[in-house]
Amino acid sequence: MAVSERGHHRNVPGYADSFWFKYVLSVIAAGVAETVTYPLDLTKTRLQIQGELSKQSKHKVPYRGMLQTALGVAREEGVLKLWQGLTPAVQRHVVYSGCRMGAYEWIRDNVLGREPDGSFPVWKAVCGGLVAGSLGQFIASPTDLVKVQMQMEGRRILEGKPARVRGTWHAFTKILAEGGIRGLWKGWVPNVQRAALVNMGDLATYDSAKRFILGHTSLSDGPIVHSLSSACSGIVAASLGTPADVVKTRIMNQPTDSSGRGTLYRSSIDCLVKTVRKEGVMALYKGFVPIWSRMAPWSLTFWLSYEQVRRLSGTTSF
């Protein structure tokens, strides 16, 4: 027996409340959300890279804004290039979203535990989001590295540079050949830092906002509550995660020497300092609009899909 938000009991099949069943459901929801919003992610990545060390580069900044960047990619490289790198992005969510969602719910229900009245304090939600996001992203970091490099291939070709990778498998094998197993985790520190902040904003905010709305309004646990909660989580996640996302993208995209070490930045702190010194503090929020513009519909699509597939499969609401 499971208890809903308003205390009504309903029967839940044993398999439907298992970790792995919920894992699969979260992957399905993440795949839908990623496919729908992926062009915004590619646009965000291009924006973050275009000003990198511009004072030392002879290349003119190609695009200035989100819309101009997206239209430029579609016009100069083809519309389908807006989805370049989607395969590793979806592969990433097979690991990342499954782990983060499963870990958060397990931590919430079995480690930190709810209060006697069934509530889950914000501080516990924050801790759960930090741990779940860090774990999921560390495991999925190699797929994120491949995705970022594939997203930049079209831009490199237009600048007259040779292509680095021909596809997902080639990218994985090339990274392995150049840097070994450690090379697959290049940039994992800022990657995990970003994921920790984003999930602290996403999971903790969604969970807390949903329970607040259900506890202080007459709304029932349905699409309206899920939409309002996801709107809150999207803006908080974007605000917390953008600086780490900028650092992560630049470290992952930088060239490497023969030993697999980056040639532009020694660490995430070094990247942060150089970025602020050369481009100003606001450079850390470069791409904030496309990040938020993507997180908002991604969060909405994911949470609506996830809650719906849980309901249809007979699993308890998140």
TrEMBL record:
<dbReference type="Pfam" id="PF00153">
    <property type="entry name" value="Mito_carr"/>
</dbReference>
<dbReference type="InterPro" id="IPR050391">
    <property type="entry name" value="Mito_Metabolite_Transporter"/>
</dbReference>
<keyword id="KW-0677">Repeat</keyword>
<dbReference type="GO" id="GO:0055085">
    <property type="term" value="P:transmembrane transport"/>
</dbReference>
<dbReference type="InterPro" id="IPR018108">
    <property type="entry name" value="MCP_transmembrane"/>
</dbReference>
<dbReference type="InterPro" id="IPR002067">
    <property type="entry name" value="MCP"/>
</dbReference>
<dbReference type="GO" id="GO:0016020">
    <property type="term" value="C:membrane"/>
</dbReference>
<keyword id="KW-0812">Transmembrane</keyword>
<dbReference type="InterPro" id="IPR023395">
    <property type="entry name" value="MCP_dom_sf"/>
</dbReference>
<keyword id="KW-1133">Transmembrane helix</keyword>
<feature type="repeat" description="Solcar">
    <location>
        <begin position="120"/>
        <end position="212"/>
    </location>
</feature>
<protein>
    <submittedName>
        <fullName>Mitochondrial uncoupling protein 4-like</fullName>
    </submittedName>
</protein>
<feature type="repeat" description="Solcar">
    <location>
        <begin position="17"/>
        <end position="110"/>
    </location>
</feature>
<comment type="similarity">
    <text>Belongs to the mitochondrial carrier (TC 2.A.29) family.</text>
</comment>
<keyword id="KW-0813">Transport</keyword>
<keyword id="KW-0472">Membrane</keyword>
<feature type="repeat" description="Solcar">
    <location>
        <begin position="221"/>
        <end position="312"/>
    </location>
</feature>
